[in-house]
């Protein structure tokens, strides 16, 4: 019988993970229990996705705002320019609380009309109507209030982030510009707080003569008085745990995914791939927010998930090469062409409209949308059939 179902995605419920828990055992046991309850048959190339928060909580990879403050004090000796932070209570507000606790005078440079991930500081239409050029114009806080109002609430959260950040970092000055070098008018010591543009911005500032240039990835990249840390990403990928504590991006992810894979192979006899995922890489068309505030979608994954899809565009081939075929003849011809496709189709017309992205970014986005960020209780996502295609029987 021909196969009638393609990719299947399931959220897997697990116990609530706490400090010191054995994540590998919890993931494997939860998956096996779900398989028994739902009559799931394991297959080679199945994928298990584990949310990064599960790993970080079990590792107890947390840090207090006091640890952040001490690290900032140790690495800066004057006024600090905070360049391009995102507008977020969950992400940046608690980091700002720690940075401000360092006692250093702060200058916040905000990009506009939105931050790096699409949170808006103002209505773009008003920006246009007021003839403001975001590519060249520098605004001070007084300009911002005069032009856009004394209360500018985010459309989703209802928060005025300029007001919030001023309340958190008392005495700070806030400036608006899309040129990171603007900060050098106020201080030559800079903390770059963007995620995906951080390397280029660091280089720009160094070349422009900044005395100290660090990023969030350089803060808590090692432990401070026993705190959590992440040697590669520092504070990037962190989330609010409470008002005085952050959960950091997990460490040693490669060890964990290999352990889960090994245990699953032993239990199921199948070559199952495993990855850790954080934010998905997708953009909301209404709020215009790009979900990916983490430095990467997947900080760790097994070797079978390396690479990009190598797919043909079925509808393109059906409308061109096979335009005169129909019915079973078309089905058979398409399946044969897919089964015999080249190993590298990059640049070929037959791939027009396919998704040129990393496999882990695609799977991580799928997993993030499935697990959600609230009360579903499914921090493990099990994906079957992702690597199958129209020729798979």
From TrEMBL:
Keyword Ligase: yes
Keyword terms: Ligase
InterPro entries: F420-0_gamma-glut_ligase-dom
GO MF term set: ligase activity
Keyword Ligase found: yes
Every Coenzyme F420:L-glutamate ligase-like domain range: 11-385
SUPFAM superfamilies: CofE-like (SSF144010)
Record-given protein name: F420-0:gamma-glutamyl ligase
Origin species: Peptoniphilus koenoeneniae
